[in-house]
Specification:
There is one protein chain. The protein has eleven helices and 13 strands. It has a seven-stranded parallel beta sheet with strand order 3-2-1-4-5-6-11, with helices on both faces. A two-stranded parallel ribbon has the order 7-10. Helix 1 packs across helix 8 and helix 5 runs parallel beside helix 6. The protein is globular. The two termini are 37 Å apart. Bound molecules: UDP-4-deoxy-4-formamido-beta-L-arabinopyranose. UDP-4-deoxy-4-formamido-beta-L-arabinopyranose binds next to strand 7, helix 7 and strand 8.
């Protein structure tokens, strides 16, 4: 019998790419919940087009405990949950901290309460490299002690991990993994699915591709005076399909050998500056987007990259795609949008 996996935020960027990996795997059947606060149901049509498979969809806010309970009452056989649904913009969180705390923490707590009632076995939580804060010694391992969270967004992930860990310790029979994504970018290689926030994008790659296509006039490189090789921030960009694939491996791991609670970094190990990311885009697309060099953005860390040894061993996972492939896939998607 197939295992039913609930994907929250399934119409979102990483959620929709993960739906593809799950639907293409004969072990799973999928239900998605998404309130479309920053996504469109069109993403579901694209997932169906790519996989040829259908799945159930629900639209409500997981901060609504009654709606969440009603959903779980109607679906007693959910085996595992992948919880993507959350806000994820560093600058938006600086502008609206209460919105970020109530959405990201409130939905997690409601979901965990329902998980106990329904005897869910496995949970995967979307965490973020932003939990580490500003670290001097790179790359970061899962053992690297956290520095101060630089944004409310980052703090929702620090708190989310802690809530989950405490919950797992107090709740026999449930296992969980927090996956710390570095910077997921790129799009499905078909060009049919990619990042399509309905709100104004704040992430670098959609800003690059939209500017290159003339949908946006220009963007700003935030900070040129960081202590890095070219003065701009360093991030570890990782292809969204690599990230999606890791979720399926993490589900298998939870089912077999995983400890009751664990955390894993998901990155490539390569630190890339903002200016290097733009240069890669220019190389693969042949287009030079207009940008200006500007001041630092509040909430940013200077540099971060992942030590990948733990995830390589635990999940036998290694990112497949390089930066140029990430940029080319994002560009193909933007032109198809
Ligand atoms: C990348 C770099 C900006 C916009 C993201 C996600 C978060 C997460 C971690 C997981 C930074 C610079 C950006 C612009 C710029 N984890 N930039 N001009 O903040 O690293 O966080 O990764 O999923 O969810 O949001 O990503 O794409 O906003 O920024 O110069 O207009 O690009 O300063 O150095 P960030 P980002």
């Amino acid at each position: 019998m197939k295992q039913t996996i609930l994907v929250t935020g399934g119409a979102g960027y990483i959620g929709s790419h993960t739906l593809i990996e799950l639907l293409n795997n004969p072990t799973y059947e999928v239900i998605s919940i998404d309130n479309h606060s920053n996504s469109s149901p069109d993403a579901y049509d694209r997932v169906k087009q790519i996989t040829g498979k259908s799945f159930q969809q629900y639209a409500f806010n997981l901060c609504d405990q009654e709606a969440t309970n009603a959903f779980f009452d109607a679906h007693p056989n959910i085996h595992g949950i992948i919880h993507f649904a959350a806000f994820k913009s560093v600058p938006d969180s600086v502008a609206d901290p209460l919105g970020y705390y109530s959405n990201n923490i409130g939905s997690l707590i409601n979901l965990l309460k329902a998980a106990v009632k329904n005897k869910i076995k496995n949970i995967i939580f979307s965490s973020s490299c932003s939990v580490y804060g500003n670290i001097n010694q790179l790359p970061v391992t899962e053992q690297t002690p956290f520095e101060k969270a630089e944004s409310p967004y980052a703090y929702t992930k620090v708190a989310g991990e802690r809530i989950l860990e405490d919950f797992i310790r107090a709740t026999p029979g449930i296992k969980a993994i927090a996956l710390r994504y570095f910077n997921p970018v790129g799009a499905h290689l078909s060009g049919l699915l990619g990042e399509s926030p309905i709100n104004k994008p704040t992430n670098l790659v959609p800003l690059i591709t939209r500017t290159a296509l003339g949908k946006i006039k220009s963007f700003t490189v935030f900070g040129t005076d960081y202590n890095t090789r070219d003065g701009s921030c360093i991030r570890d960009y990782v292809h969204v399909s690599d990230i999606a694939n890791a979720h399926v491996l993490a589900l298998e791991h939870l089912e077999t050998t995983a400890k009751t609670y664990d955390v894993l970094n998901l990155g490539t190990g390569n630190g890339v500056s903002v200016l290097e990311a733009i240069a890669s885009f220019e190389k693969v697309s042949g287009v030079k987007p207009t940008y200006t060099l500007g001041p630092r953005r509040a909430g940013d860390v200077e540099a971060i990259s992942s030590d990948c040894s733990k995830v390589e061993k635990a999940l036998h996972w290694k990112a497949k795609y390089n930066l140029d492939e990430m940029m080319l896939s994002a560009w193909k998607w933007e032109q198809n949008l």
